[in-house]
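Narrative summary of target 7.
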Amino acid sequence: MNQAEINAEKFKFKIQVQVRSFDLDSYGIVHNSVYLKYFEIARTEYIRQALGIDPGRFFTDFYFVLAKNVCNYITPARFDEILDIYTRVTRVGNSSFEMEYLIEESKNEKNCRNR
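Modeled conformation, tokenized:
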């Protein structure tokens, strides 16, 4: 992965999540599976705020299938850090769309990129 690709300026949507103790693994860093939860939080808020769709309608009016996750872990996140999670739609097809995420510690240390 090219570091030049990772640029928060390409994203117009951001939320913040604080790392909690139950997000950590036995090494004291955020467990790799927890990043998927962070992406889900960001995706839900993106759809709610940027697209104006109430998440309650996710289960009645829309049918989302998450078909693929690719995550590049760069540096570990740690307890009590505030993470900036950037979200954007990168492709819209006839029956699908792709989203991209970038997680940075609020001090601008890049943690993770997901597509």
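The chain has a mean pLDDT of 85.
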